[in-house]
Amino acid sequence: MSTLTNTSTTPSTRKSFAFYAKYLFVRLGVLPFLLLAAIIIFSLLSENFLTGRNVMNVFRQSSYLMLIAMGQMFALLTGGFDLSVGTIVAITSVVSAIVMSTLFSLYPDAIWLSISVGALVGLFVGTSIGLINGIGVAIFKVNPFMMTLGMSSVGFGAALYLTGGSPVYGMPMDFSDTFGFGKLLGIPAPIWICFLCFAALALLVNWTRTGRYFYAVGGNLKAAQLSGINTKKMLMLAYMISGLVAAVCGILLTARLDTGEANIGASFPLESIAACVIAGVSLRGGVGRIGNVVLGALFIGLITNGMNLARIESYLQTVVIGLLLIFAVIADQLRLKLMASLQD
Amino acid sequence: MAIQESTPSALEACPTELGPHSHSSQMKHGQSNRIQNINTNNEKVQPLLKLDRISKLYPGVVALDKMQLTIMPGEVHILFGENGAGKSTLISTIAGAHQASSGDMYFAGEKVLLHSVQEARKLGISAVFQEFSLVPQLSIAENLFLGAEPLRAGLLDQTANLTAAKALLSKLGFELDAEQKVAYLSRAEQQMVEIAKAFRTEPKILILDEPTASLTEKESDRLFELVSQLKAKGVGIIYITHRMSEIRRIGDRITIMRDGKYISTLNVKDTSEDALLTLMTGRVIDKVFPKVAFHPTSTALSINNLSTKDNSLKKVSIEVKRGEIVGLAGLIGSGKSELLRACFGLEPLASGSVHFNGEEVTGFSPKQMLDRGFFYNSADRKNEGLAMNRSCRENITLASLTTQRFSLGLFLKRFKELKECKDLAKKLQLQPFNIEREVENFSGGNQQKVLLAKCLTRDVSLYVFDEPTVGVDVGTRTEIYQLIANLCESGAAVVLISSDLPEIIHLSHRAYVMYRGELKAELSGTNINEQMLLNHFFERECTL
Q1: Do B358 and B393 have their domain in common?
Q2: Both B405 and B525 in a single domain?
């Protein structure tokens, strides 16, 4: 737009361009800039990066983290964390695999019955762990950090105990074919399920009372209480949603691996919190948008994929993710400062 | 003493040209002699501290507006003004806790720019703030020397620390055990430690912000003794207090501020209390407070012999009718706030009963009370009232989302919410008019408007306003009073809990005075006046 104006007005237009860049940064946060930078850098580093196949690949790989991060957002919104998401993935994987393979070996004809019962038991277990987290945090006032850290140890131990440390086999082939490798309209199943969860949670968080109350509880617990909100219920619900979505992710990963594994999901707590923080979710609670959280998870998936294509060693990748997280937090602090200076 | 020679009016009339030494004799001298005269006078009456057009801006708020102040050696200078007049901001600026947005500060004639409390301390400016800056886990001795610990070979010298602390405490005459942890001290004792901390270095300027608020009479006497000792040594003392008796007892000069602005500096001896109050409030009361029609109808709330578990209430009974404003007055901690909080389900009850619109509601939760039309508007908007990092819109409707007005089954009527919030914001003249902006980015007065708007989004038959005008400027206050008056005249019952006496006097039809958890008096009509209210505030005769 500045090229169209004549020379005399150029300085002011330039100034307003800087202003708009600042304004966009303040409005949207650091994430769009990071995404853009990542896409440009990786498409320069590797010509395969921007191919249709790879893009679909990135989405599929990121869909697991997207799910976890969406659940994590609810815990963060209320001013807590959920460090047990990794464990919930593991124990869901183990439990649903055991139930499925047991049922399948007893009733080899009832393929879909065993799949659905196995999945439902898995979802139930995940949500229950979330409920226990919620009870600890809301009723017994245990610090969310300690509560979910403790539960993550409990869950991990239980998953290892159930399996004796070895993977669980013997699930129906259809399970893995459908939920792990299946496609609908050319789009992989995990992306569909992730999308459905996103739609449901976005509706919940933006268009229902319950959703509004999460923000209120995280924004000011006492004010929420005085406004007639059952804050204990909301806290419990937040951890239950986190547990439920982690369980969905656990079942999808089980289908992809075709085994029940006790050793999966260890990186999820950090990565999901990272995705949320990069997406502008406040660690103090009350602030965060679910659409941005999905983009945050996509960004982490994009970085991982891009670094794989650029043949960066996996150990170094962990370093990069950690540094990016810290960078995002610093950028967010800068944003808050700028926001204050832009106030009219 | 030097200050008596210079009249305050002359002081303030030409501070930049002549400095604070414009004796009438000096005025006779010609232009050419002026420089020499200033030099000779400087030796006599060099002001310790001079503030020139100090302003402090916060986003959306002007806390200090071209404020000026001159402190002479050996004087006790009282800072006087309403809550929110900017006294605290001013002393924090002097003490280096934060920096002025514009204006100059001169210390002993030299221009200084203070970046931290440490810098101010090095110059000799020590402050005792209302909020304690003590570490509860550390002992008194450790607190006294925090940041200036005696060292020996680079390591902490515990013995020297303790000895020095004991010497300091005994010099001040405070009977405290230097080895005790601060966490175990009473508020008064903590206040004494805080004062002792200010005396650790030899201060040239000492700032005391309502130091006697939590001291006993004996401790206060001791403090005044110290103050006069310091005065004799030539220390300049800035003293904030609301108590007239203290102003008379120790004050030399007094500076009145209002809404962040400098109003006047007077000699304490030459002023009357009435003059001070007029200068402090600076407004014609009739314009601020609306006349509220009084048409009481049925009883909305009746409280019988209510006691709380923590003893903040002891067998209190009151009654509130529809169509009347009932004032609740008393000191902080008198139970005036706790009484209505207890009805709203915020304090655990021990005994007694609460009836609301004919129904027994003893021990109901906030949600149950809201559903019955009882709205408690908290005094503490930051901690209890508003979710600061959420938008105005979300805060305004938060307590009403369960009603059909904003909800259809599970879902929110977001467009209706938007429209109604806009209407409300317009009605309340929200500034700036942007309901999607986070509450924390509004000024205090506008935040208060958002808080009040919360109770206008649902059907309410009893409004409880707990300190509705805390930290609110006069203009907004008038709007808030008008709002309260309208609510009452439309037939609702209103309870007004306030520490601001004029508010109680001018708005309430009936008033209750609380004292130490008990109901002390019920006043009505013309009996609601300052003298009557204050008489019941204290155990013995009032000090004001």
Answers
A1: no
A2: no
Tell me which DSSP letter residue B319 carries. E
Same domain, B265 and B292: no
Report yes or no: B244 and B49 within 8 Å, Cβ to Cβ: no
Please say which residue of B459, B480, B498 terminates a domain.
Answer: B459
Enter the DSSP assignment of B303.
Answer: E
Do B68 and B206 lie in one domain? The reply is: yes
At residue B511, what is the residue type? A
Residue B185: inside a domain: no
Tell whether the model's pLDDT for residue B79 goes beyond 70.
Answer: yes
Cβ contacts below 8 Å, chain A against chain B, sum to 84
Each residue's pLDDT tens digit, B157-179? 888 888 989 988 888 777 888 88
Which residues of B lie inside 8 Å of A (Cβ-Cβ)? 59-60, 344, 346, 365-367, 369-371, 376, 378, 383-390, 394-395, 398-399, 401-402, 407, 410-412, 414, 432, 441, 454
A333 within 8 A of A30, measured Cβ to Cβ: no
- Residue B64 tokens read as 């200090």
Q: CB distance A220–B401 less than 8 Å?
A: no
Distance from CA of A332 to the nearest CA of B (A): 15
Chain A: closest CA distance from residue B502 (Å): 28
Residues of chain A with pLDDT under 50: 1-12, 344
Beta-carbon contacts of residue A190 (< 8 Å; ≥ 6 apart) = A60, A63, A64, A179, A180, A252, A256
B303 lies in the same domain as B450: no
Fold classification of A32-331 (topology level):
ABC transporter involved in vitamin B12 uptake, BtuC (1.10.3470)
Q: Say how many domains are in chain B.
A: 3
Q: pLDDT digits over B87-134, tens only?
A: 888 888 898 888 888 888 898 888 888 888 888 888 888 888 876 778
Whether A219 sits inside 8 A of B387 (CB atoms) is yes
Q: Which of residues 267-306 of A touch B (CB under 8 A)?
A: 282, 284, 286-287
Task: Look up residue B370 and give its two tokens.
Answer: 């809201």
The shortest C-alpha distance from B454 to chain A (Å) reads 9
Q: Which of B246, B267, B282 is the last residue of a domain?
A: B282
A-chain CB neighbours of B367 within 8 Å are 228-230
| B49-58 and B411-412 strand pairing | unpaired
When scoring A26, A27, A204, A220 by the number of chain B Cβ atoms within 10 A, the one with the most, hence best to mutate, is A220
| Residues B214, B103 share a domain | yes
With CA atoms as reference, report the closest residue to B360 among B303, B296, B298, B309: B303
- The enclosing domain of B532 has a CATH number of 3.40.50.300
Q: Which structure tokens are listed for B400?
A: 């009403």
Domain membership of residue B73 as a residue range: 47-124+202-282
Where exactly are the structural domains of chain A? 32-331
pLDDT tens for each residue of B467-520: 888 767 666 778 888 889 999 999 899 999 988 788 888 888 999 988 888 888
The verdict on B312 and B449 lying in the same domain is no
**ipTM given for this complex:** 0.79
Which residue of chain A comes nearest to B442, CA vs CA?
Answer: A343
Which of B398, B405, B406, B407 is most worth mutating to test chain A (most A CB atoms within 10 A of its CB)? B398
* The model scores a pTM over 0.80: no
Q: What pLDDT is stored for residue B290 in this prediction? A: 83
* Out of B59, B385, B411, closest to residue A207 by CB: B411
What pairs with residue B394 in β-bridges? none
Task: For residues B396 and B432, state if they share a domain.
Answer: yes
